[in-house]
């Protein structure tokens, strides 16, 4: 184990914090093996490694922490086998635990409406309202929205052209309230902000393209103004967009296209939200929900 950690430090340049974590993980592993009367790595078998992982999970350790510990253990056995210290690698086939699927943090519709109901008619306020309306209406990432040019919005077709990850473009429909907010911004605010020629749709006070950081600040300020106590992140409106569509009956593959996900499995996490909602409705509405059928 000491040789493996030295290898990581000297040849891999592993950070000190990571080395300390691996050291703790491997000491825990050594104690587990000692409890099984195993004193040499050559005596370790795949079931023993699997048993160690099961013990970690039974102790209440989070899946992410158990997975990190297994990374250290697998690295140790791979190193020992490569150095000729053991005839085989017993940890090679042991897979880390799958972390639980976390539900996206979505806001209730009423909170979204309060978030979008921004007061004021200054150029910055009109811009901010158009920005937030477009984020929720299209489900776009903040980076996609601040990257928009004026010509990417088609008011006639009520669509917006988004540049997604990997340079993949997609056309997404935009709701009427968002188009109205965009029109107000383009007519009454953007000409004031545009101190120099730029195709960018959303501009900062200096006339340049709005940054992701400023857009995130706009969202955070709007949430505070609306009195929203839930944690609001740059993806909050995107998550809310997808969740509300699914709860409204939208097909998961349609939501996949709108979000620009390469795989439908990425989008299917939103079906968990819908199932939870259905379960709550069933529990409160069905006369035999609690007593069985």
Automatic annotation (TrEMBL):
Keyword Ribosomal protein belongs to the record: no
GO biological process: cell division; chromosome segregation; DNA transposition
GO molecular function: DNA binding; tyrosine-based site-specific recombinase activity
GO CC aspect terms: cytoplasm
Comp. bias intervals (Basic and acidic residues): 82-92
Annotated InterPro entries: CB, DNA_brk_join_enz, Integrase-like_cat_sf, Integrase_catalytic, Integrase_recombinase_N, Integrase_SAM-like_N, Recomb_XerD, Tyrosine_recombinase_XerC/XerD
CDD domains: INT_XerDC_C
Family stated for the protein in its record: Belongs to the 'phage' integrase family. XerD subfamily.
Function of the protein: Site-specific tyrosine recombinase, which acts by catalyzing the cutting and rejoining of the recombining DNA molecules. The XerC-XerD complex is essential to convert dimers of the bacterial chromosome into monomers to permit their segregation at cell division. It also contributes to the segregational stability of plasmids.
Subunit structure: Forms a cyclic heterotetrameric complex composed of two molecules of XerC and two molecules of XerD.
Protein name: Tyrosine recombinase XerD
Annotated source species: Saccharothrix ecbatanensis
Organism classification: Bacteria, Bacillati, Actinomycetota, Actinomycetes, Pseudonocardiales
Gene behind the chain: xerD
